[in-house]
Amino acid sequence: MKYYDIIASVNNSINGFVWGTVGVWLLLIVGIIMTCMTKVFQVTHFAHWMKMTLGRLFDKKVTAHSKEQASISQFQALCTALAATVGVGNIAGVSAAIMSGGPGAIFWMWVAAFFGMMTNYSENVLGIYFRRKNTEGEWSGGPMYYLQDGLGKGEGFRKGFGKFLAVVFSICALLASFGIGNMGQVNKIVINITNAFDIKFLSGIVLYGDGDAKVTLYMLLVGVALLIVVASVILGGIKRIAEVAETIIPFMVVAFMLGSITVIVVNAGQIIPVFGAILGDAFTGRAVWGAAVGVSLKEVITIGCKRGVFSNEAGLGSSVMVHSNSNVIEPVRQGMWGIFEVFMDTMVVCTLTAFTILTSGVINLETGVAVTNNDSTLVAEAFNTVFSIGNFHFGKYFIAIAILLFAFTTVLGWSHYGTKAVEYLATSEEAKTVTIIYKIVFIVMILSGALMTTSLAWDISDTFNGLMMIPNLIGVVFLSPLVMKITRNYVDRHLKHKTDVKPMFSFDPEIQKAQEELAKTADEEDDVV
């Protein structure tokens, strides 16, 4: 067996464990635990967290750019987190879930998102509570810090175990950033752009390879253009990344939602049959689906939950690293943005994608036979059923641009995750130099993504992406009593209006004191960000 094949075989085994039934059930169980411990916060306090998120999108306290050095607004933190989560998975991922698991997979995608809301909430509460300032005056937070200072609080084995898990998480996040957060996204952009907007002269010049694995001059030029644009953004730091994210993400999400809603409304007669197919298949599976091999109930559940987690990243601990850069004072306030992030990503965007596909007729609800075997092309075909003039179809162009912008912002978001992972692994004296080196390597890797003809690099990073969940979930579960305590503290002060309860802002006494002083400058306590 060749060296390449051995690596692929080992990676497939690990990937099957992490992203298979074991990993999916682990994520679900933790989500259920946090939902129960917070007394189903996402339901019992639905009106409150919607008021504090969606209801404050036009509140200057939430959207105004922070004057604090290297800090970003709550809205910018949300957009940057969504930039890394709302991506190819919301288009190709949903299509793949339906094509391989049937309509019932969408129901289990919803289930994973429902419980994932409280996992993401818990991660962000802990992220804010355990964050600290780095040498550049920038907030640094993430699973590595609550694993080190929360789980690892004390001496002896516990301290060493917490530090060990923090290092493991950081290494996995670093490696995943090059693949799933860089090369994989860039590869999708290049393939979709060169196919949708083909320039014969450039695509006809083959640099190497043949067939579907060929690399053309056109692909190289698109890769170079991406490299230049990405470099101009990420070298500007988190503030520039956040500014780009808050410009692109709202526009693209709204445009995609409007396009999807239009397709669904045009095919409104199919909405009830689609609901019937989703709910019916969710608990039975299909004897015949797609390539006539059938889908078992176990496969339906696994595929749906996996695609839900892959889309919103709840439980992986990744988005915590950017939420922690927010200028927010209250940990619970940023936790509620975490709930909204999962809600928006899966319950809204993924659901609209699913209904666009299933109502448009591009896939047969009875047999699973689709008009195309390409998962991203399937959504384009669904758009083509409505957005066409004669033989000119807009669908493929719209989806190509959507994938470009979604994947581009995903690259930006993951560059920040990788930066934070490197910063943690380096000493404070080395951090600035090492993070600059990381950014340069990250930028150079963009060309590798544009020119790669094998998915092995992406597959390996996908495995490390999944491995992030293990140390993170251990930390979330062991620190769940603290999450519950911080949540109860917030509810007592803001919802029950108890005046004798001291706020819980940070584990660090100095940061706690500074945040208390900031909170006093607010006009009213309920206006504290």
Verbal overview:
By secondary structure, the chain is an all-alpha fold. It has a single domain, classed as Amino acid/polyamine transporter I. It contains 24 helices and six strands. The strands form three sheets. A two-stranded antiparallel sheet has the order 1-2. The chain has a two-stranded antiparallel sheet with strand order 3-4. A hairpin with a 6-residue loop joins strand 3 and strand 4. Helix 2 (21-37) packs across helix 15 (297-312) and helix 10 packs antiparallel against helix 21. The chain is globular, with a radius of gyration of 23 Å. The chain starts with a helix and ends in a 9-residue tail after the last helix. Residues 523-527 have low confidence and may be disordered.
Secondary structure elements and pairings:
Blueprint (H helix, E strand, L loop, with lengths): L2 H16 L2 H17 L3 H4 L1 H7 L7 H4 L10 H12 L2 H14 L2 H26 L2 E2 L5 E2 L2 H9 L5 H40 L3 H4 L2 E3 L6 E2 H18 L2 H30 L4 H12 L14 H16 L7 H4 L7 H30 L14 H10 L3 E2 L2 E2 L1 H31 L5 H21 L4 H12 L1 H10 L1 H16 L13 H12 L9
Helix pairs in contact: 1-21, 2-8, 2-15, 2-22, 6-13, 6-17, 6-19, 7-15, 7-17, 7-18, 8-14, 8-15, 8-17, 9-10, 9-22, 10-12, 10-19, 10-20, 10-21, 10-22, 12-19, 12-20, 13-17, 13-19, 17-18, 18-19, 19-20
